[in-house]
Backbone:
């Protein structure tokens, strides 16, 4: 074990040439980041998760009820023993051959069987009230941490001159404000990493898991080798748009469509500006080029920059989705599917379901029209549209 730890904490990997861990030990004159400081993030992550539960129960839920957001979930599928057995024991996504077999067995239209499976899948999804509470918690935290980051950074010299991130590196003292900022961010992302498995499942689950993993790795790397100054720039910049997205979601759940559209436009502008403009031109420029000139590369420098580039790849992917949603909104006047929707999406063909061919159709009413609304459960009218 001692050999493994010695290999892992090899000074030639983590630190610049001619710098040792002994050089970065705390003294009466200066305090430096210590790897053991990061252990504090685990109990704090649990504490943040408990605060979230209290917040959602006693603050977010009353707000949601005040906005007439009820705990009703998606429309429930009509009870059917045969389809339920297929759903629970065989597949939740039947292929065309199985759909045709079920259609003959039940004498139902294939599209109505498809709708039944879609409704049955959505039946397991959380209610609008649950989603509102989750978004309100995230909005509150993102707003707080971004505000704190801005107030902290505006007093620092490296906000105005990024070369200050590397002067006298790595002998830059750790201030209490910087330590608090780092541990708070790390604790929050650890809480997200764990709660992601119990939170609302989204289509980009794997991408978000990769993002949380890369973020935790970046925060850990930059703290251990004292790249904390540039780390604060990265964190604050990436927090800038998050609160706006959660605000747009809350407006959508409350059915304030114009406010939702406005918040989404603001989110899109801030997201693309900060992550495709400022981040590569300002942050990546200093981590790749200014640090090369002032400090020079070393092994963990390469890893740190590779992680930043991975984050930038994810930024490009999400920017593509945002632009795609915006283009749909412009061309159609509405968005038929949010590519980061909480709820499973369906095809456009299913939005215009034909009447069933026999009275056994579970969704046909007495007038012979589809029992599903014309929007097939979509909240239309703007870029915040989501399927329910």
Residues:
């Amino acid at each position: 074990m001692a050999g493994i730890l010695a290999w892992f904490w090899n000074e030639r990997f983590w630190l610049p040439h001619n710098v040792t861990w002994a050089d970065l030990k705390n003294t009466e004159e200066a305090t430096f980041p210590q790897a053991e400081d990061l252990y504090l993030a685990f109990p704090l992550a649990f504490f943040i998760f408990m605060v979230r539960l209290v917040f959602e129960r006693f603050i977010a839920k009353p707000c949601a009820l005040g906005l007439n957001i009820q705990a009703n979930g998606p429309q429930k599928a009509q009870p059917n023993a045969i389809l339920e057995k297929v759903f629970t024991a065989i597949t939740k996504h039947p292929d065309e051959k199985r759909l045709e077999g079920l259609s003959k067995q039940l004498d139902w239209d294939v599209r109505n069987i498809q709708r039944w499976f879609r409704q049955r899948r959505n039946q397991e999804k959380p209610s609008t009230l649950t989603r509102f509470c989750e978004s309100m918690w995230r909005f509150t935290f993102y707003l707080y941490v971004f505000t704190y980051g801005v107030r902290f950074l505006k007093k620092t010299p490296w906000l105005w001159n990024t070369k200050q991130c590397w002067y006298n590196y790595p002998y830059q003292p750790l201030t209490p404000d910087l330590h608090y900022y780092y541990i708070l961010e790390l604790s929050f992302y650890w809480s997200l990493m764990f709660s992601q498995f119990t939170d609302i499942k989204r289509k980009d689950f794997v991408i978000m898991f990769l993002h949380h993993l890369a973020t935790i790795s970046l925060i850990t790397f930059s703290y251990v080798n004292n790249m904390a100054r540039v780390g604060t720039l990265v964190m604050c910049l990436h927090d800038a748009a998050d609160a706006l997205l959660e605000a747009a979601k809350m407006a959508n759940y409350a059915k304030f469509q114009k406010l939702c559209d406005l918040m989404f436009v603001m989110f899109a502008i801030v997201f693309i500006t900060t992550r495709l403009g400022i981040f590569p031109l300002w942050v990546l420029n200093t981590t790749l080029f200014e640090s090369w000139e002032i400090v020079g590369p070393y092994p963990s420098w390469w890893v740190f920059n590779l992680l930043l580039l991975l984050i930038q790849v994810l930024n490009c992917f999400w920017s593509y989705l945002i632009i795609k949603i915006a283009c749909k909104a412009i061309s159609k006047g509405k968005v038929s599917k949010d590519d980061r929707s909480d709820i499973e999406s369906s095809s456009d063909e299913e939005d215009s379901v034909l009447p069933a061919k026999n009275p056994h159709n579970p969704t046909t009413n007495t007038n012979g029209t589809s029992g599903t609304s014309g929007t097939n459960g979509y909240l239309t009218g703007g870029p915040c549209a989501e399927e329910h």
